Records
---
Amino acid sequence: MTAAAYAMDTDTAPPRPTGAPTVNVWVCLDCGARQPEAGTCRACKSDEVLDARKEDVRALMADVELRLRDRREARMRWGSVAIGVGVVVLLWMIPGYWAARRQVFALPVLMDQWGLMILIAFGVLKIGDRVLAHKRFPYLDEQQHIVD
Ligand SMILES: [Zn+2]
């Protein structure tokens, strides 16, 4: 929208109800698809299509999003630890690895190996965070308003 159009819009249009959607007001809780009419979801055929003009429906959407994120983060933490440990254990099986380790970066009580596991796990977590950070309701902002 241009600045002029925006100015005209704010001058003439009545204030929009707080954060409520205007066109695709029906939201599917199961897949996040939006549509203009009630009934079953066009995308996944779920019956859980709710009116996002209602504040409590938007609160419910935020709640669903939060629970999905918690579950995803817990899974990713365990997954990244498993990958960190797995990669280092695989390194141990490479012939010559221990000899090279003694020459290059050996620390007492295998601290270097623990550090390597943590480093790999942390890297996997960071990458996973970017790749898998998929939101069911990307159009719902922090204030539980619909942004089109
Ligand atoms: Zn759906």
---
Amino acid sequence: MQKRGEEQALSSQPGGDAQRGRRQRRGVRALHELLALLAPPTCTACRAPLAAAGPLLCPACTRALPWLRGPGCPRCGLPRHRRGGCPAAGAAFALSWAPLAYEGVARDLVQALKFRGALPVARLMAAQVAAGLPPALRGTDAVVPVPAHAGRRRRRGFDPAGVLARALAARLGLPLAPCLARGGGRRQVGAGKAQRRDPGRLAVVARAEPPRRALLVDDVHTTGATLDACAAALAAGGSGWIAAVTYARTL
Ligand SMILES: [Zn+2]
Ligand SMILES: [Zn+2]
């Protein structure tokens, strides 16, 4: 609106000024075209130039993705831990799984999504999650994103877990059920240890009726306290079975 106003003002000025305005606009357009030539597509992880636009990772980063191979613990998603030492033994989710370790290129991608707003990265992550999703985590009724802190979402303008959950729901052909919200310090039934220590930080409530079999989605599984708080809220809201899936798992 303001720009059109300026243009009109320029063109209504007599002779030299209008010409100068047109020259300036042509100059700006040329500068943009030049910048596009000077800034070819780069790898989302290492920022090396890519031969073509399209793939988000360079071949070296694609090879370096830290896949978690082999059967890990189905409950906590760790590749291994000592017997009886499952950190998710008392969790409100039945299973949790991540295709990658939270390190190297996988961490670079999560950071790109989180801090540089690289939304196409969410589609790549969703594809990698969907490709390896174990059969036990298939057949859920809907995908539920871990809710973001309202303040953080406002600052970023979007919510990484929500974007990943949406992309994954589309990949899996499941509905998206954004039924959880960060609550205001209310204690939750079945809350994990971390939440009991800091009830305000992790209080989560179900704002709408949750799916019966829920696939809970976050970008990274760290201590599991957030996933546990979300799963507890889903269970309290009526979910009968909850599995948690993340893009990466902290080892
Ligand atoms: Zn790279
Ligand atoms: Zn375990």
